Every structure is written in structure tokens, then in C-alpha cells.
Amino acid sequence: MPRILIVEDEANLARGIQFNFEIEGYQVAVAPDGAEALRMLTGTVPAAEAFDLVILDVMLPGIDGYAVAERLREAGNYTPILMLTAKSRPEDVVRGLEGGADDYLAKPFDLPVLLARVKGLLRRRDWARGGAEPAAATARVGECEVDFANFEVRARGQTFRLTLLEAMLLKLLVQNAGRVVSKGEILEKVWNVTPDTATRAVDNFIVRLRKYIEADPRFPKHLHTVRGAGYKLVP
Amino acid sequence: MPVSGSQLSGGKRRKWLHVTVGVALIVVAVALTVGWQILGATEGARAREATTLRWVVYFFGTVLFSLLIAGLVLIVTLLVREVRLNERQSNFVSAVTHELKTPVASLKLYLDTLQLRELSDGRREEFYRTMQQDLERLHATINNVLNAAMYTDRPVVDAQPLDLARLVRHSIDLTLTRHQLPPECFAYEGAPELMIRGDATALETAVLNLLDNAVKYSKDRVEVRVEVTRNGDGQAHLRVHDRGVGMTRAHLRFVFKRFYRIGREVRRSRTGTGLGLFIVKSVVKGHRGTVSAESPGPDMGSTFTITLPGVIDEPEGARPSAP
């Protein structure tokens, strides 16, 4: 039974969302502000009680949603985050996604869409982890070993943790190894936005991935930019 | 819509002020430069007999320089004001977006739920009550925005006699109901009756806003003292004293400004649009009265005082019954 944390200061909304997810068979907890959310997410809890997904509002008392997402990632917590907020301008969406959110939904939202997005996010996480087929759970890129099940890259004696989006991007590139993957395809499959969305998010994520898998990120040997076409991974 | 009208004319006025000051500064700077050139040219030619001219040029030079400096100070001040207003406006858009979209989102969520799920009667009732709350909140926000538009820069034209004391007590009852509070949260002191001339609807809006704030910015326990008094100068005084979160001296200066809210909107801690106290001030100004805020500091409560002229003196024993 997946566990979901709803971070929302508006009691009516929080109650309504909780009610619906409980009916769908999820275990749901509610945090009324950012500080409480961080405490519940980063506190020492047994793995069985860890949350599988966070539904995060942006305008919160004390610590806002962007900061919660960023701090969570800094603390090494990679629980998938769905941002749910009244801020719906493209720059707000981009800011949320770059700050660590995995999906974004504007208020007011359609209930079936919210339920589907959460399901999709959990499915994407499972897909990135390798799902049922153990062969897909790991991959080798040059000297490093990618462990999709645990969202880790082991290289040069170090272990790097991957966020859900990083793992999904890397997985997409690994699956298409040797072939050019366009930025539009990446935006569509990883970020779940239309291919023509104007954002530097993909470029930033490529830079981050290079830090993990390349011995010298300035002269990439595995993860190449193909000018005007996209990106190509050469294992 | 009056709000955009007054904003537009305000913006235009400010723009012209900027342009005028800017052009004047350029003229002064050119005059200074030209004056110096003339002074330099004549200096050599008639070094001796030109002392009077030199003093004249020196005098005007000093005056022009002072003007230049004064102008620059003015421009910078205007700029700072503009920037602040801009910040407040973007905060306002953020606050109103949140205040309007949150209840709409909630209403939509419950409507979707009612359509999607099979619910027990009890659950259904509970959801209807929640939707009622959201509707009221939406209504309050819309009223707030409309009131701000209605009372901005508009003096009261048709002042009618009204009982301020009764109006305040009625507002207290409304606030208690609205926030579902026990009566002991508010203590009313002062005159049982105080007749003034004014616009009853506008004054009630203002008083309700003050009382609403007192509740909203209270801590765990709501404890508000409301006083209506009349002093010798023929003015009515309304004081609303709370034991809430209070504020710093820096915030006191700005609380009556349109769109002003303490703190950044993305970390909002209390609902609101930043229009409440602006409405209070507009209404009071329309009555040619004054409003002020005091607070000993954060967490030490605050006191808002409204002073209104127009108290009606009635001959003893000839009081009309309350309307």
C-alpha cells in the first residue's frame, strides 16, 4: 500500500485530497507546513514507514514548497514530489521542476487528473527502478555502474544518489544507447511536459549526470551533446 | 472599475512628475555648463572689471547646483516609492491569486468527489458544509476587492445620522458568528449610544475589517477590547485593542498602504489580500477622520484607533430612538 504525504496548509483541501486517496487504497498523512513536512520526511523512520510520494503545496507558512523540495534533495531524500499549487505561470512550473519536483499540477485541478498523475509518478518510479525485470535494474556506462533499483551511480570509488528525474533521464539514454535522443523526447518522457517547453532543465540535468559518470565532465566520453539534435550516450 | 481608474491616473501623475523633474534637471545641468563656459571665456578677456559678473554667475551657479542636488534626491525618492509599490502590487497579485484559487480549487475538489464517489449521507453533509465555508471565503475576498475599489479616494457625499456604538456592537456580533467564537472573546467598553454623521455601510465595512484583523492576528486565545468614546472636541473615537502577534515599528509605517502585507507571499502565514486596512483607511479618510496603529512590539498585541468628526450633539432628554 503506497504511503503518501500531503503538505498543504489549507485544511479543507488537505482533507478532501486525503479522503480521495484513502478511498483509492493509499495510506495518507498530512503536514500543515514546511517544517513539519521536513520533520516527517527526514526524521528517522523505519524503511517500511517511509513515504512513497509527496504532494507538496508551494505557498506554505514558514518554509515554502520550493525550499522544502530543495532541502529534501540536499538531505539525500529522493521521494518523488508532485507540486500542487495556485502558481501556474510557466516560470513557476520550471522553478518547481528544477528545484526538485518530479511533476507539477496547477490549482484548481481535476480530481481524476490528480489521481492519475500520482499513479503515473509511482509507475515512473518503478519503471526507473527497473520494475520486474532485474536485467534492466543495472547498467554499465564506461567505468561506472548504474543501479536503477537504488537510484545510485557508483564511479571512481564514490557513490552518487540520483533523483527520480535524473534516474529516468539516465534510463532513457541507456535504453537508447548509441542513438541520439532529442530534447523534446526527453521533456515528454521524463518531465511529462510538451516537447516545445522552453526550459534549461534538460541541459542542467545533463551537466549533473556528467558529473557522476564522466571522469572529466568538461571532455565527456560517454554522454555527448549532438548540436541541434539532442544527446547521445555511448556506454 | 474605479480601482483601475484611480491607479491609472495615479500612474500617469507619477510618470509626469518623473518626466518634469528629469527635464528640469537636464535644463539646470545645461545652464550650469553654459554658464561656466561663459565665465571661462569672459574671465580671460576682462579679468579685472568682471568681478560683479563673476559674483552673479557664482551665485546662480550655487543655486542651480542646489536645485540639481534637490532634484536628484527627489528622483531617487520617487523611484524608491515606485519600487515599493511594485513589490506590493506583485505581492497583491500573489495573495489574490491564492485567496481566489484556493477556495475554487477546494470547491472543485469536493464537487469532483461528490460526482465520482458513492458517499454516505453523513459524509455528503460534511462536504456540503466544507463547500459552504469555501464559498463564504470566496465571497469575502470578492467583497474585499470590490470595497477597496469602491471606497478609494471617495469622500462621503450623503452622510446620515447613525449610532456608532450600536454599529460597533453589531459588528462584534457579526465577527463572533463569522469566526464561531464565544462572546467573551470581545469586550465592549464605552458609550451605549453615540450619534455621528456618516455612511453606515462604509463604516460597518471598516469596523468589520478591523475586528476581523484582531481575530486573524490573535494567538491561541482571542482577547479583544473595543472602546467607543467621545471626547470634548466633538470627535468620536473607536479603539480596537488585541493581544495578538503585534508588529515592529518598521511595519507600523506601512500597514495602511494598499496591498501591504507583512512577509513574503510565498511563505504566507495568514489568509488575506493586503486590502483590509487600506479599506479602513479609505473609509475613514472619506469621513475626514484619521486612523492610526500602535504596537509595543512583536507578540505584544496592537491597537488601532479611528477618530471620526461629525458627532451630533443632542439636547438632553430629546434623544431619538435608535434607528
Task: Summarize the helices and strands and which ones pair or pack.
The complex is a heterodimer of chains A (235) and B (323).
Chain A: E1 3-7, H1 11-23, E2 27-31, H2 34-42, E3 53-56, H3 65-74, E4 81-85, H4 90-99, E5 103-106, H5 111-129, E6 138-141, E7 144-147, E8 152-155, E9 158-161, H6 164-175, E10 180-181, H7 183-191, H8 201-213, E11 223-226, E12 230-233
Parallel strand pairs in A: 1-2, 1-3, 3-4, 4-5
Antiparallel strand pairs in A: 6-7, 7-8, 8-9, 10-12, 11-12
Chain B: H1 2-45, H2 51-116, H3 121-151, E1 160-163, H4 164-179, E2 186-190, E3 195-198, H5 200-216, E4 224-230, E5 236-242, H6 249-252, H7 276-286, E6 290-294, E7 302-308
Parallel strand pairs in B: 2-4
Antiparallel strand pairs in B: 1-3, 4-5, 5-7, 6-7
Textual characterization of the structure:
The complex is a heterodimer of chains A (235) and B (323). Chain A has 235 residues and is of the alpha/beta class. Chain A has two domains: 3-129, Rossmann fold (3-Layer(aba) Sandwich); 134-233, Arc Repressor Mutant, subunit A. Helices cover 40% and strands 21% of the residues of chain A. Chain A has eight helices and twelve strands. Chain A has helices at residues 11-23, 34-42, 65-74, 90-99, 111-129, 164-175, 183-191, 201-213; strands at 3-7, 27-31, 53-56, 81-85, 103-106, 138-141, 144-147, 152-155, 158-161, 180-181, 223-226, 230-233. A five-stranded parallel sheet of chain A has the order 2-1-3-4-5, with helices on both faces. In chain A, strands 6-7-8-9 form a four-stranded antiparallel sheet, with no helix packed on it. Chain A has a three-stranded antiparallel sheet with strand order 10-12-11. In chain A, strand 1 (3-7), helix 1 (11-23) and strand 2 (27-31) form a beta-alpha-beta unit. Chain A is globular and about 50 Å long. Chain A starts with a strand and ends with a strand. The model of chain B is unreliable at 1-9 and 316-323 (pLDDT under 50). Chain B contains seven helices and seven strands, in the order αααβαββαββααββ. In chain B, a hairpin with a 5-residue loop joins strand 4 and strand 5 (236-242). In chain B, helix 2 (51-116) packs antiparallel against helix 3. Chain B folds into two domains: 1-153; 160-308, Heat Shock Protein 90. Chain B has helices spanning 2-45, 51-116, 121-151, 164-179, 200-216, 249-252, 276-286; strands spanning 160-163, 186-190, 195-198, 224-230, 236-242, 290-294, 302-308. Chain B is α+β, with helices and mostly antiparallel strands and 323 residues long. Chain B has a five-stranded mixed sheet with strand order 2-4-5-7-6. In chain B, strands 1-3 form a two-stranded antiparallel ribbon. The chains are: A alpha/beta (235), B alpha+beta (323). Chain A binds chain B through residues 10, 12-13, 15-17, 19-20, 23, 58-64, 66, 86-87, 107-112, and chain B through 94, 97-98, 101-102, 104-110, 112-113, 116-117, 127, 130, 133-134, 265-270.
